[in-house]
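dude i think i finally got it to work??
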Amino acid sequence: MAGTDTYTLKELAKLLAWNPAHCKVILKQLGADPAGQIDNETAAKVAEKVHRPWPPKAA
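look at this
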């Protein structure tokens, strides 16, 4: 996958087409800092929780 290996909360929510507030709650449950950079591994765990494919398909 080309591009970034880290994401902001807003970027992650957009990629997953999911509510940012819900993503924030899941990140906190995973012990990640929603205000910081989210790594690819954590992003994949969030995607799994909201039943979304990871990495997301290119539009």
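Helices lie at 9-16, 20-29, 40-49.
im so relieved honestly
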